[in-house]
Amino acid sequence: MSGSQAGKILNAAVIGCGEVAQIAHMPNLIVASDMYKITALCDISAQSLELCSKRFSIPNTFTSVTDLLASPISIDVVFILTADQFHAEHIVQCANAGKHIMIEKPMAQTLKEYDLVEEARVKNNVVIFVGYMRRYSTALQRLKDEIEGKEINYVRVRDIIGNNKYFTSQSGQYQKYFTDHPAESSAELSRRMKSNLIENLGEEKAGNDKRNAHSWSLLHSLASHDLSAMRDVLGMPERCLFSSRSEDDGQGKSWWWNAVFGYKGFKCYYEMGIDEVAVFDAHIEVYTNDSRVKIQYDTPYVKGLPIKLTIQKQLPNGDFSEQVIRPTYVDPYTLELPLLYDSIVNGKDYKTKPLDAKNDTILAKMIMDAFVE
């Protein structure tokens, strides 16, 4: 049921007015005016607030989540687009204030944080919708339909992409970046990153290789897209058999990972990396006895780029067949909005809940534990 049919417009607040807010979420919410109305913005950057307030004609602005929630402004749902390390805290704050939540991935940083968020969801009876937009692409469901009931022999999952700036610079949204963040917030971010790493890996492992902090961050950011989509298609693996990463780049960072996951009856090869080539090579390919089925993702920051499904088969007469399916040009960020609306207004179930998202941190721990130098 669309917003116009239901007759209810959800008042939305946006917390975090950075890149993804400016390029994707706020423009999409403005267009989806039959379902949503942005009533308030919140960010620690006064410059980001000023830009977005003027650009999107939203006068109500706040520099703290506490002040936002204490205001008399009508808010039904909050879009949380802040730094990853603050996600869980902001979710619990908003849930305890009775607000529904759309949270950008990763939802949290530690297993304890996932449990606290789930507790807040149940206690307050609110929707906490994790924005794994790749899982809401129409082509992913087509892939699942195509392989249903078939014996899987092998799977490849890849996410090798160019630096984000190559794609965001061509988004056509003319986003701007600001650094007027309070010094205490930057210090708190660093403190949380270190604390989370120790909680997840243990103090000794967290400090025995300076790449670990960057690796954990990468496994929770770029990797969470593929790992979540992989889980949607295949379920959770039984174990991670092997993982490896590239050498230190001189700044304590390692940009390339590969891993092998063990499923019952087949293996899944996973590879991830970021380079300086403006190509977005993200896909899942499933090999069965009589077909190869591949979903190919493009950057979500440029609207109108289709997510495609390619099916290769050997026909009964011996001919080779290749079929390319493009279900829609509508981007997954946009496809999420009516599903989020239905979950809030009509009580419709949704698949990206907090305990589902928790599995990506479990997978990240699996990968780190299976690391071989």
From TrEMBL:
Bilayer-spanning residue ranges: none
GO molecular function list: nucleotide binding; oxidoreductase activity
Coiled-coil region list: 133-160
Hydrolase recorded as keyword: no
GO BP: any one term: NADPH regeneration
GO CC annotation terms, alphabetical: cytoplasm
Keywords, comma-separated and alphabetical: Coiled coil
Keyword Glycoprotein: no
Gfo/Idh/MocA-like oxidoreductase N-terminal domain boundaries: 11-132
UniProt-listed PANTHER family: BINDING ROSSMANN FOLD OXIDOREDUCTASE, PUTATIVE (AFU_ORTHOLOGUE AFUA_4G10190)-RELATED, NAD(P)-BINDING ROSSMANN-FOLD SUPERFAMILY PROTEIN-RELATED
Name of the protein this chain belongs to: Myo-inositol 2-dehydrogenase
Organism: Kwoniella dejecticola CBS 10117
